[in-house]
Design a protein that fits this description.
This protein is mainly beta and about 300 residues long. About 10% of the residues lie in helices and about 40% in strands. It has 2 domains: about 170 residues, no CATH class; about 110 residues, OB fold (Dihydrolipoamide Acetyltransferase, E2P). It contains 4 helices and 18 strands. It has a 6-stranded mixed beta sheet, with no helix packed on it. A 6-stranded mixed beta sheet has the order 2-3-5-12-7-10, with no helix packed on it. The longest helix has 13 residues. It is elongated and about 70 Å long. This is Meteorin, glial cell differentiation regulator. Its main location: secreted.
Protein backbone atom coordinates (compact mmCIF):
# COMPACT_ATOMS: atom_id res chain seq x y z
CA UNK A 1 0.00 0.00 0.00
CA UNK A 2 1.26 3.50 -0.77
CA UNK A 3 0.26 7.07 0.08
CA UNK A 4 -0.72 9.43 -2.71
CA UNK A 5 2.25 11.37 -4.02
CA UNK A 6 1.88 15.18 -4.02
CA UNK A 7 1.70 15.27 -7.81
CA UNK A 8 -1.15 12.74 -7.86
CA UNK A 9 -2.99 14.64 -5.11
CA UNK A 10 -2.70 17.86 -7.06
CA UNK A 11 -3.91 16.12 -10.17
CA UNK A 12 -6.90 14.63 -8.37
CA UNK A 13 -7.91 17.84 -6.61
CA UNK A 14 -7.11 20.56 -9.12
CA UNK A 15 -7.57 19.02 -12.57
CA UNK A 16 -10.63 19.94 -14.54
CA UNK A 17 -12.64 17.32 -16.40
CA UNK A 18 -11.92 18.12 -20.04
CA UNK A 19 -14.08 17.10 -22.94
CA UNK A 20 -12.65 13.93 -24.46
CA UNK A 21 -14.05 11.27 -26.73
CA UNK A 22 -15.92 8.80 -24.60
CA UNK A 23 -19.29 7.10 -24.43
CA UNK A 24 -21.51 5.33 -21.94
CA UNK A 25 -23.73 2.41 -22.81
CA UNK A 26 -27.44 3.13 -22.91
CA UNK A 27 -27.97 1.46 -19.54
CA UNK A 28 -25.04 3.38 -17.96
CA UNK A 29 -23.37 0.06 -17.11
CA UNK A 30 -20.32 0.39 -19.35
CA UNK A 31 -17.92 3.06 -20.60
CA UNK A 32 -15.61 3.25 -23.62
CA UNK A 33 -13.18 6.05 -24.35
CA UNK A 34 -9.86 7.04 -25.89
CA UNK A 35 -6.87 8.78 -24.41
CA UNK A 36 -5.82 10.25 -27.77
CA UNK A 37 -7.71 13.48 -27.06
CA UNK A 38 -6.95 13.45 -23.34
CA UNK A 39 -4.22 15.84 -22.23
CA UNK A 40 -1.45 14.62 -19.91
CA UNK A 41 -2.32 15.34 -16.29
CA UNK A 42 -6.05 15.28 -16.95
CA UNK A 43 -8.29 13.01 -14.85
CA UNK A 44 -11.62 12.05 -16.35
CA UNK A 45 -14.34 11.31 -13.82
CA UNK A 46 -16.52 8.29 -14.61
CA UNK A 47 -19.47 6.91 -12.67
CA UNK A 48 -21.22 3.60 -13.38
CA UNK A 49 -24.40 2.52 -11.65
CA UNK A 50 -24.94 -1.16 -12.43
CA UNK A 51 -24.21 -4.44 -10.71
CA UNK A 52 -22.03 -5.47 -13.65
CA UNK A 53 -20.54 -3.98 -16.77
CA UNK A 54 -17.24 -3.09 -18.42
CA UNK A 55 -14.71 -0.34 -19.08
CA UNK A 56 -12.51 -0.04 -22.18
CA UNK A 57 -9.80 2.65 -22.32
CA UNK A 58 -8.09 2.83 -25.70
CA UNK A 59 -4.57 4.26 -26.00
CA UNK A 60 -4.37 5.26 -22.32
CA UNK A 61 -2.93 8.68 -21.47
CA UNK A 62 -3.57 10.72 -18.35
CA UNK A 63 -5.83 9.07 -15.80
CA UNK A 64 -9.38 7.96 -15.06
CA UNK A 65 -11.23 7.94 -11.77
CA UNK A 66 -14.08 5.43 -11.66
CA UNK A 67 -16.84 5.32 -9.07
CA UNK A 68 -18.96 2.16 -8.88
CA UNK A 69 -22.29 3.02 -7.29
CA UNK A 70 -24.73 0.24 -8.23
CA UNK A 71 -28.43 0.68 -7.67
CA UNK A 72 -28.84 -2.74 -6.04
CA UNK A 73 -32.40 -3.81 -5.24
CA UNK A 74 -33.35 -3.83 -1.58
CA UNK A 75 -32.07 -7.07 -0.03
CA UNK A 76 -30.08 -8.01 -3.15
CA UNK A 77 -26.96 -9.74 -1.95
CA UNK A 78 -24.63 -12.47 -3.10
CA UNK A 79 -24.97 -16.15 -2.22
CA UNK A 80 -24.58 -16.86 1.46
CA UNK A 81 -24.34 -13.18 2.26
CA UNK A 82 -24.92 -11.53 5.59
CA UNK A 83 -27.80 -9.15 5.16
CA UNK A 84 -26.92 -7.19 8.29
CA UNK A 85 -23.54 -5.65 7.48
CA UNK A 86 -24.39 -3.73 4.32
CA UNK A 87 -20.93 -4.62 3.02
CA UNK A 88 -20.52 -4.21 -0.74
CA UNK A 89 -17.97 -6.30 -2.63
CA UNK A 90 -16.69 -5.54 -6.13
CA UNK A 91 -14.49 -7.65 -8.41
CA UNK A 92 -12.69 -6.63 -11.59
CA UNK A 93 -11.48 -9.01 -14.29
CA UNK A 94 -8.88 -7.49 -16.67
CA UNK A 95 -8.99 -8.62 -20.28
CA UNK A 96 -6.34 -10.97 -21.59
CA UNK A 97 -4.67 -8.11 -23.50
CA UNK A 98 -4.80 -5.57 -20.67
CA UNK A 99 -1.90 -3.16 -21.14
CA UNK A 100 -0.93 0.51 -20.85
CA UNK A 101 -2.24 1.39 -17.39
CA UNK A 102 -2.29 0.39 -13.75
CA UNK A 103 -5.41 0.14 -11.59
CA UNK A 104 -5.35 1.37 -8.01
CA UNK A 105 -7.96 1.13 -5.28
CA UNK A 106 -8.43 4.62 -3.85
CA UNK A 107 -9.71 4.52 -0.29
CA UNK A 108 -9.69 7.62 1.94
CA UNK A 109 -6.81 9.28 0.09
CA UNK A 110 -4.63 6.16 -0.07
CA UNK A 111 -3.85 4.18 -3.21
CA UNK A 112 -3.40 0.42 -3.22
CA UNK A 113 -2.21 -1.27 -6.42
CA UNK A 114 -4.74 -3.82 -7.68
CA UNK A 115 -3.67 -4.47 -11.27
CA UNK A 116 -0.15 -3.61 -12.51
CA UNK A 117 0.70 -2.87 -16.12
CA UNK A 118 1.59 -6.10 -17.87
CA UNK A 119 4.91 -6.89 -19.57
CA UNK A 120 4.66 -7.58 -23.30
CA UNK A 121 5.78 -11.19 -22.79
CA UNK A 122 2.75 -11.84 -20.54
CA UNK A 123 0.38 -10.44 -23.16
CA UNK A 124 1.99 -12.42 -25.96
CA UNK A 125 1.96 -15.52 -23.80
CA UNK A 126 -1.79 -15.03 -23.27
CA UNK A 127 -1.36 -15.27 -19.53
CA UNK A 128 -4.73 -14.34 -18.02
CA UNK A 129 -4.59 -11.58 -15.37
CA UNK A 130 -6.06 -12.52 -12.00
CA UNK A 131 -9.44 -11.32 -10.80
CA UNK A 132 -9.13 -8.71 -8.03
CA UNK A 133 -11.79 -8.00 -5.42
CA UNK A 134 -12.31 -5.38 -2.73
CA UNK A 135 -15.03 -4.45 -0.27
CA UNK A 136 -16.45 -1.26 1.18
CA UNK A 137 -18.78 -0.43 4.03
CA UNK A 138 -21.85 1.81 3.62
CA UNK A 139 -20.78 5.45 3.35
CA UNK A 140 -17.13 4.59 2.77
CA UNK A 141 -15.58 6.51 -0.15
CA UNK A 142 -13.94 4.05 -2.52
CA UNK A 143 -13.02 4.48 -6.18
CA UNK A 144 -10.80 2.94 -8.84
CA UNK A 145 -7.97 5.12 -10.12
CA UNK A 146 -6.54 4.16 -13.53
CA UNK A 147 -3.14 5.71 -14.21
CA UNK A 148 -1.59 5.40 -17.67
CA UNK A 149 2.02 4.25 -17.76
CA UNK A 150 4.61 6.17 -19.85
CA UNK A 151 5.00 4.61 -23.28
CA UNK A 152 7.03 5.57 -26.37
CA UNK A 153 4.37 3.89 -28.49
CA UNK A 154 0.77 3.80 -27.25
CA UNK A 155 -0.50 1.86 -30.26
CA UNK A 156 -2.20 -1.43 -29.41
CA UNK A 157 -2.45 -0.39 -25.74
CA UNK A 158 -5.91 -1.11 -24.37
CA UNK A 159 -6.75 -1.16 -20.67
CA UNK A 160 -10.07 -2.95 -20.36
CA UNK A 161 -11.87 -4.96 -17.72
CA UNK A 162 -15.25 -6.27 -16.63
CA UNK A 163 -16.63 -5.60 -13.18
CA UNK A 164 -19.20 -7.10 -10.83
CA UNK A 165 -20.64 -5.49 -7.72
CA UNK A 166 -22.58 -7.55 -5.21
CA UNK A 167 -23.75 -7.31 -1.64
CA UNK A 168 -21.43 -8.93 0.91
CA UNK A 169 -20.01 -12.06 -0.72
CA UNK A 170 -18.92 -14.24 2.16
CA UNK A 171 -15.75 -16.31 2.35
CA UNK A 172 -17.39 -19.31 0.68
CA UNK A 173 -17.95 -17.38 -2.55
CA UNK A 174 -14.78 -15.26 -2.58
CA UNK A 175 -11.85 -16.73 -4.48
CA UNK A 176 -9.34 -13.88 -4.45
CA UNK A 177 -7.15 -14.60 -1.45
CA UNK A 178 -5.17 -11.39 -1.88
CA UNK A 179 -8.15 -9.21 -1.14
CA UNK A 180 -10.79 -11.10 0.82
CA UNK A 181 -11.00 -13.27 3.89
CA UNK A 182 -10.58 -16.92 2.95
CA UNK A 183 -11.36 -18.47 6.32
CA UNK A 184 -13.67 -21.45 5.89
CA UNK A 185 -13.90 -21.07 2.11
CA UNK A 186 -13.25 -24.79 1.48
CA UNK A 187 -15.08 -26.33 4.42
CA UNK A 188 -17.97 -28.74 3.69
CA UNK A 189 -21.48 -27.28 3.82
CA UNK A 190 -23.69 -28.22 6.75
CA UNK A 191 -27.23 -29.54 6.24
CA UNK A 192 -28.91 -26.11 6.34
CA UNK A 193 -26.41 -24.64 3.87
CA UNK A 194 -26.97 -27.53 1.47
CA UNK A 195 -30.75 -27.06 1.49
CA UNK A 196 -30.44 -23.29 1.05
CA UNK A 197 -27.91 -23.68 -1.78
CA UNK A 198 -30.34 -25.92 -3.63
CA UNK A 199 -33.34 -23.68 -3.02
CA UNK A 200 -32.15 -20.08 -3.01
CA UNK A 201 -32.29 -17.91 -6.13
CA UNK A 202 -28.74 -16.69 -5.42
CA UNK A 203 -27.46 -19.99 -6.86
CA UNK A 204 -28.03 -20.21 -10.62
CA UNK A 205 -26.97 -23.83 -11.08
CA UNK A 206 -28.12 -27.07 -9.46
CA UNK A 207 -27.15 -30.26 -11.29
CA UNK A 208 -26.85 -33.94 -10.44
CA UNK A 209 -23.85 -35.59 -12.02
CA UNK A 210 -20.40 -37.13 -11.95
CA UNK A 211 -16.91 -35.68 -12.07
CA UNK A 212 -15.11 -36.40 -15.35
CA UNK A 213 -11.83 -34.58 -14.76
CA UNK A 214 -10.29 -31.88 -12.59
CA UNK A 215 -7.68 -29.56 -14.11
CA UNK A 216 -5.65 -27.06 -12.08
CA UNK A 217 -4.44 -23.60 -13.09
CA UNK A 218 -1.73 -22.39 -10.66
CA UNK A 219 -1.53 -18.96 -12.32
CA UNK A 220 -5.20 -18.22 -11.69
CA UNK A 221 -5.24 -20.26 -8.47
CA UNK A 222 -8.32 -22.14 -9.59
CA UNK A 223 -9.44 -25.65 -10.45
CA UNK A 224 -11.87 -26.49 -13.25
CA UNK A 225 -14.21 -29.43 -12.60
CA UNK A 226 -15.60 -31.06 -15.74
CA UNK A 227 -19.00 -32.54 -14.88
CA UNK A 228 -21.30 -34.91 -16.75
CA UNK A 229 -24.84 -34.07 -15.61
CA UNK A 230 -27.53 -36.72 -15.53
CA UNK A 231 -30.15 -34.20 -14.42
CA UNK A 232 -30.30 -30.40 -14.43
CA UNK A 233 -32.55 -29.18 -11.63
CA UNK A 234 -31.86 -25.48 -12.24
CA UNK A 235 -29.88 -23.62 -14.86
CA UNK A 236 -30.47 -19.90 -15.27
CA UNK A 237 -28.05 -19.72 -18.21
CA UNK A 238 -26.96 -22.40 -20.68
CA UNK A 239 -23.90 -23.40 -18.67
CA UNK A 240 -24.34 -27.12 -19.39
CA UNK A 241 -24.69 -28.24 -23.02
CA UNK A 242 -26.36 -31.48 -24.24
CA UNK A 243 -23.89 -34.31 -24.82
CA UNK A 244 -25.04 -35.89 -28.08
CA UNK A 245 -28.18 -38.01 -27.83
CA UNK A 246 -27.25 -39.55 -24.50
CA UNK A 247 -29.67 -37.39 -22.51
CA UNK A 248 -26.75 -36.10 -20.46
CA UNK A 249 -25.12 -32.68 -20.46
CA UNK A 250 -21.54 -31.49 -20.09
CA UNK A 251 -20.29 -28.41 -18.30
CA UNK A 252 -17.58 -26.90 -16.12
CA UNK A 253 -17.62 -25.57 -12.57
CA UNK A 254 -14.72 -23.64 -11.05
CA UNK A 255 -13.41 -23.56 -7.51
CA UNK A 256 -10.30 -22.35 -5.72
CA UNK A 257 -7.10 -24.30 -6.22
CA UNK A 258 -6.45 -24.25 -2.47
CA UNK A 259 -9.55 -26.40 -1.90
CA UNK A 260 -7.68 -29.36 -3.44
CA UNK A 261 -10.61 -30.87 -5.35
CA UNK A 262 -9.85 -34.35 -6.68
CA UNK A 263 -11.79 -36.58 -9.10
CA UNK A 264 -14.07 -38.87 -7.12
CA UNK A 265 -16.40 -41.74 -7.91
CA UNK A 266 -20.12 -41.49 -7.31
CA UNK A 267 -22.90 -39.02 -8.02
CA UNK A 268 -22.88 -35.51 -6.55
CA UNK A 269 -25.36 -32.65 -6.38
CA UNK A 270 -23.45 -29.60 -7.59
CA UNK A 271 -24.69 -26.11 -6.79
CA UNK A 272 -23.06 -23.07 -8.33
CA UNK A 273 -23.30 -19.32 -8.75
CA UNK A 274 -22.33 -17.12 -11.66
CA UNK A 275 -19.11 -15.06 -11.64
CA UNK A 276 -18.04 -13.27 -14.84
CA UNK A 277 -20.11 -15.69 -16.91
CA UNK A 278 -18.64 -18.81 -15.32
CA UNK A 279 -20.13 -21.23 -12.78
CA UNK A 280 -18.36 -21.29 -9.38
CA UNK A 281 -18.87 -24.10 -6.91
CA UNK A 282 -21.11 -23.65 -3.91
CA UNK A 283 -22.10 -26.79 -2.01
CA UNK A 284 -21.50 -30.21 -3.58
CA UNK A 285 -22.66 -33.10 -1.36
CA UNK A 286 -22.81 -36.66 -2.57
CA UNK A 287 -26.30 -37.14 -3.93
CA UNK A 288 -27.16 -39.89 -1.43
CA UNK A 289 -26.30 -37.49 1.41
CA UNK A 290 -28.44 -34.73 -0.09
CA UNK A 291 -31.34 -37.16 -0.52
CA UNK A 292 -31.12 -38.15 3.15
CA UNK A 293 -30.95 -34.51 4.31
CA UNK A 294 -33.82 -33.45 2.05
CA UNK A 295 -36.14 -36.31 3.04
CA UNK A 296 -35.51 -35.65 6.75
CA UNK A 297 -36.32 -31.94 6.30
CA UNK A 298 -39.41 -32.79 4.25
CA UNK A 299 -40.70 -35.17 6.91
CA UNK A 300 -40.19 -32.45 9.53
CA UNK A 301 -41.85 -29.86 7.23
CA UNK A 302 -38.61 -27.84 7.29
CA UNK A 303 -37.60 -28.10 3.65
CA UNK A 304 -37.30 -24.56 2.19
CA UNK A 305 -38.45 -25.70 -1.27
CA UNK A 306 -39.65 -28.69 -3.26
CA UNK A 307 -37.18 -30.48 -5.52
CA UNK A 308 -37.49 -33.73 -7.45
CA UNK A 309 -35.22 -36.04 -5.50
CA UNK A 310 -35.69 -39.26 -7.47
Amino acid sequence: MLVLAPLVLCTLLLSRCRSVWSSYSEDQCSWRGSGLSQEPGNVEQISLHCAEGSLEWLYPTGALRLSLSPRLPSGAVGPGASRSTGLITACIKPTEGFRGAQIYLERDGVLELLVPDRPEKEVRGRRQPAVRCFSRLPGEKVALFLQSTPQWDISRRIAAFRYEVRGDWNSRTSHDSNNLNMEGACRPCNDSEILMAVCTSDFVLVVRGNIRTVSNNPDLRESVISVTASRIHRQKYLLFQPLGKSGRSLGEIRTMLKCGVKPGAGTFLFTGWLHFGEAWLGCAPRYKDFHRIYEAAKEAHENPCEIASE
